[in-house]
Input
Amino acid sequence: MACDIVVIINNPDDIVEARKAGHQLALDLGFSLTDVTMIATAISEIARNITSYAGRGTVRVTVDERDGRQALVVRAEDDGPGIADIERAMEDGYSTGRGLGMGLPGSRRLMDRLIVESALGKGTVIEMWKWVPGRA
Output
């Protein structure tokens, strides 16, 4: 099973590719269909943020250890303008663009953890993960 998938995000078609990559890995890892859908949706949201705000970037989907447990980890990186106020960006309904302001807060709700690192003029890194289900 491929456990490290990198999708270059340059246009809306790439959002679909990133979503598919996360969807397939989540299925392979035994996530429920509900969790698979939540993971794919969260990936779509952060990949869409890349095309909307930075223009281009990457989304990496992998399996890694977080806090001593296996997790499906999604890492989105761009060299865009950065996020001026991360706390505000995490509030429902806050958007600096034309969006609904659901991207980051929505993704945070869909995943088990979401971390944002950003610096003005230097880009943004978003890492989010969902715990891999234990084997029954």
